[in-house]
Specification:
The structure is a homotetramer of 216-residue chains. Chain A has 216 residues and is an all-alpha fold. Chain A is built from 9 helices and no strands. In chain A, helix 2 runs parallel beside helix 5 (92-117). The longest helix of chain A has 26 residues, at 92-117. The relative contact order of chain A is 0.11. Chains in contact: A-B, A-D, B-C, C-D. The B-C interface holds B 1-4, 19-20, 23-24, 26-28, 30-31, 33-35, 37-39, 41, 44, 47, 49, 52-53, 56, 67, 70-71, 74, 77-78, 81-82, 85, 202-204, 208, 211-212, 215-216 and C 1-2, 5-6, 8-14, 17, 20-21, 24-25, 27-29, 32, 35, 91-93, 95-96, 99, 102-103, 106-107, 109-110, 113-114, 117-118, 120-124, 127.
Amino acid sequence: MTASSHSEGGQGLGKQRIEALSDAIFAFAMTLLVLDVKIPKVAEALVTQEFLIQTLLDLWPKFVSFVMSFVILGMFWVAHHGYSHFLKRTDRPFLWINLLFLMVVVFVPFSTDFLGDYPRQRIASLVYGCNIMALGLTLYWQWAYATTGHRLVGSHIEPRLVRKGKQRILMGVLTICAAMLLSFVNPALSLIVYVLFPIAYLQPSQIDLHWTHAHD
Amino acid sequence: MTASSHSEGGQGLGKQRIEALSDAIFAFAMTLLVLDVKIPKVAEALVTQEFLIQTLLDLWPKFVSFVMSFVILGMFWVAHHGYSHFLKRTDRPFLWINLLFLMVVVFVPFSTDFLGDYPRQRIASLVYGCNIMALGLTLYWQWAYATTGHRLVGSHIEPRLVRKGKQRILMGVLTICAAMLLSFVNPALSLIVYVLFPIAYLQPSQIDLHWTHAHD
Amino acid sequence: MTASSHSEGGQGLGKQRIEALSDAIFAFAMTLLVLDVKIPKVAEALVTQEFLIQTLLDLWPKFVSFVMSFVILGMFWVAHHGYSHFLKRTDRPFLWINLLFLMVVVFVPFSTDFLGDYPRQRIASLVYGCNIMALGLTLYWQWAYATTGHRLVGSHIEPRLVRKGKQRILMGVLTICAAMLLSFVNPALSLIVYVLFPIAYLQPSQIDLHWTHAHD
Amino acid sequence: MTASSHSEGGQGLGKQRIEALSDAIFAFAMTLLVLDVKIPKVAEALVTQEFLIQTLLDLWPKFVSFVMSFVILGMFWVAHHGYSHFLKRTDRPFLWINLLFLMVVVFVPFSTDFLGDYPRQRIASLVYGCNIMALGLTLYWQWAYATTGHRLVGSHIEPRLVRKGKQRILMGVLTICAAMLLSFVNPALSLIVYVLFPIAYLQPSQIDLHWTHAHD
């Protein structure tokens, strides 16, 4: 920890507390998602096994949107995590871009709830898509701000790695754009893309590979 | 901290931030449990001492399921804690298995609420059992993934210890399986098993013992 | 950090993650308190300035119980904080006593809400008192467990300090007991004690003094 | 970390845990803000695209107050962060001033919700203004307490820097005062000031500059 702490403790606002706030906000936003999955309380005398099973089954859009948003937020947490590994210092503008990013994160439970309530409505699908796209764009902004002229990253970071990192985010943004356009054909189609696109990010990125090589 | 930080900071995604996210999600899920224990607000002029006492007493399934889930989540937090102590590095698949585990954790307030509302319904008991079983299975997956071929743990870790760790989880999963089968006889029986089985985990495991020996 | 980290990383379950979980649970429980302070939403055309002011004023029991519980939880957080400073190691029973303590912490938003809804009812006052008393008793248990035979604390800790720490907690528990008895005369009296007793804990304890001397 | 950890671990109550509690409470309060932005659930057969769009548009005061409060809390988090960087030790009174500050932070979701529900009512605007002013005053108190006679900060800190830090907070408090007075003319005017004043704090303060110079 010696080397990294040295640079963290000294220059600009501490990276550790930014990470602490980010982790806590991600954790809450991910946990809040479940608050909207609710089974109505009915007097126990009136309730039947069939009624409860039917109610559970009717909640499927809620379950799907819960899992989808949890995975997407998890994906962005992993990405945020990966990029912040390269930060050597922070400054006030970066802090504010990060807060903007976190504001978009906090908004995800709202758009997830909206989509879970109205899975067949185009407007719900578009609001959700905008939310995810904003996640991508603010993350891109962070990474671009930090790396331009090696502003907040070490001088030894390769330009190829920076470019790969940007491309990886932009590809996600473009996929979401396409999904939003598909919602004008049929909102169900955009839902399918939202569910499937995180799978592309399960595999390790160039950034991870570089990383492993550098330190092993 | 020198030795462990060295390996954490360097290889793969930082263990510390994974722990921070996990701790926050556990803390939040454990706190959310209390949100569903509610006493209805009645105009104070109409309310009587007897009415309030009766309302409190009628909440017993809520109190029981709150305590039960808090203890079970606490138990899994302790276990997660114990296993992650052995991690020397992390990688992207491990991160995703951990996120899957956390998704199951976040689901516990939902199934607890469901069970607290309908303690005599088999379906509520089964949903709760599935949730706890999924906790066990995803924790097992983490541990198995991390230890296979010493992928993420140190090379000095004994095979006996790895096996013991797996058995300890599987025994819990099997107990929950049995409890779920019992719910077909009577849902109350499965409740009793859910309440009692954490007691078996109060005693220190082989893992703790090894640990203490190794460092004392 | 070198000396303390050495003992933390090595023996038993890490003190740092226990503190992280405790801090997060305290933070959530303290924040959840505000969720129950709500002004009803009325159509804006019908609403008047007088109505809103009256509604705010009618919320006074909610405000009082919010502030009271926030201060009491803050006081216990400070105390928990102070005691855990002396811990040199942890073990599984300690972890479970701590989880029990945290379960009582999580229960505070429930009993606060109950007291805020029915400030003139004895039963609400008693439930609240039991909750605070349980906080004191579980904290006492932790401290007694950790210090008996220097189980989890350093061998240089003075018996006088241990005794002072216990007395300080027990005095609070006795005060709450007295407040609960007073509620049989008039619930308002016990409320007054609940509000006032944290003031006694604002002044530094023997523990803090010892501490400052030891390190200055 | 060596130098700063040395002073943290040793004297008074640990700065790190105070920061951990503060970060978690900030994160939670910032996330709770979104809970009040809700679209009502209507049976899907009856819902139309136009109805949903209209409902979203009608939520504009909720969106504005959400963004405003998120930015203001973010601003105070940055400020809290900046000041605590200079702390060399803590003591019990400081801990309590910090808890008071956090209590005001926790109150923000309440006053935001109130303002979002009744954006045209003077009382809502005044309550919100008082909340933000209390944030400023408790932060001022912290900083004044810590720096008076170099009580909790290092002896090398310049008096000019301390004075600048105080002025920066007081300017914000005065701005909010002015906004509250404007609400007697028209509540909409005070809203505009609440939205605009954080912009002044986007630019780096003297404190940041000093900081960067000192360590670069």
